Amino acid sequence: MAKSALITGLTGQDGSYLAELLLDKGYDVYGLVRRSSSSSFGRINHFANKIHVISGDLLDQFSLMDAIDQAQPDEIYNLASQSYVPLSWTQPALTAEYTAIGVSRLLEAIRRCKPDARFYQASSSEVFGQPDESPQTERTAFRPRNPYGVAKAYAHWMTINYRQKYDLYACCGITYTHESPRRGAEFVFRKITRGAVKIKLGLAKELKLGNLDALRDWCHAEDVVNAMWMMLQQNKPDDFIIASGETHSVKELVDCAFSYVGLNWQDYVSVDPQFYRPDEPVTLAGCVDKIKARIQWQPKYSFADLVESMVEHELKDLTDGGA
Ligand code: GDP
Fold first, then answer.
1. Phi, psi at residue 249, to the nearest 5°?
2. From CA 176, how far away is CA 218, in angstroms rounded?
3. Which intervals hold domain NAD(P)-binding (predicted)?
4. How far apart are CA 171 and CA 145, in angstroms?
């Protein structure tokens, strides 16, 4: 019989890639979707008819229990959260309701309705905030610096506590920045790849950026969701950092994207203080020794592949009439 999986956050970047991966593997895929007046199906329209959409909300305990009763999932992936860091400062309590307490509700629902289901919790490198060391490992202390990071730290420890107390198969994957054509255009990776292509096509004249020396650890979202799935196929539940293990500067990214379309970035890029961050974190870089050694995961996309695939996507999108 086909395995079944329930994904929260189905309509987000990671939820949509994970659903496609699980469909390819023959899973019966259920997605929990929050009822809203506007459609949020942009990322999943092309396969929406192949999955089961269940209406529910991390704020509502009974809706989670009903969703699990209906899906009878072998695997549950919690990818839903209030994930926009600046908003976590203006709505800290709501962020905690979704990103922290929502996970308590989900763990309780699993414990009561389907305790043999395997559970993946999306932890984030934001739990490290201002870390004591770089690269960070699974043992690096959490020092979150915003309400989103604090909420993710709570969810992380609740997941581990439910594993220890109730023997649930529950794991946390600590992901770093991950990108794809389905990522919002305001994030720097898409801003740069799309910006370079617009200039190449004569649709823009310049690109204004913030701190070119900022360092990040960038992965492709497809690689990240594959790691999530692999984590739930192991004999024992465990927590892992999911990252590329490499850091690159924004300047390297600019250079790579502009070179790919045959332009010299210095002719088009200027630095604008409005894009500087007041509290730029120290380098966030994940140590991937554990995930490579224990579950033999490694990303398929190199940094250059990621740039290439994003630029190719923008070239296609913008020549097909995108804006
Ligand atoms: P984050 O990892 O969630 O902060 O993702 P972003 O893609 O928004 O930012 C990545 C890094 O790029 C940060 O260190 C920013 O300071 C830096 N950066 C430099 N210029 C820009 C810009 O114009 N926009 C954004 N969003 N980030 C920029």
1. -90, 160
2. 7
3. 6-310
4. 23
Measured from the Cα of 277, ligand 1's closest atom is 16
pTM of the model as a whole: 0.94
* Inter-residue contact 182 to 221 (CB < 8 Å): yes
H or E element, residue 87: helix 85-90
Instruction: Mark whether 166 is an active-site residue.
Output: no
C-alpha 210 to ligand 1 mean position (Å): 7
Our answer on whether the CB atom of 127 is closer than 6 Å to any ligand 1 atom is no
**Ligand 1 atom closest to Cα of residue 281:** 14
Tell me, rounded to whole angstroms, the distance of Cα 169 from its chain centroid: 21
Do 218 and 51 meet the contact criterion of CB atoms below 8 Å apart? no
Domains of the chain: 4-178+220-242 (3.40.50.720), 184-217+246-283+301-319 (3.90.25.10)
